[in-house]
Design a protein that fits this description.
Length: 69
């Protein structure tokens, strides 16, 4: 469990900031609330997938490096 706290906090913080940025930018363009919601949800999905893939690859790289020493 302890190994997952740092990536989870980093992921949540990144997700909140980027989603907020997308939603406020789109809302500032005076698009319909439906479009703002769709883009916000799409950003959550894509950003979450990207963060998960990045964390997986960095963890695997760290493990491979530690094994090679």
């Amino acid at each position: 469990m302890e190994d997952h706290i740092e990536p989870a906090i980093y992921g949540v913080t990144d997700g909140i900031i980027t989603t907020f940025a997308v939603v406020t930018d789109v809302a500032g363009a005076f698009l319909s609330p439906k479009i703002v919601l769709i883009l916000g949800l799409a950003n959550l999905l894509v950003d979450g997938s990207s963060m998960a893939a990045g964390d997986y690859l960095s963890t695997e790289s760290r493990i491979d490096y530690e094994r090679s020493e």
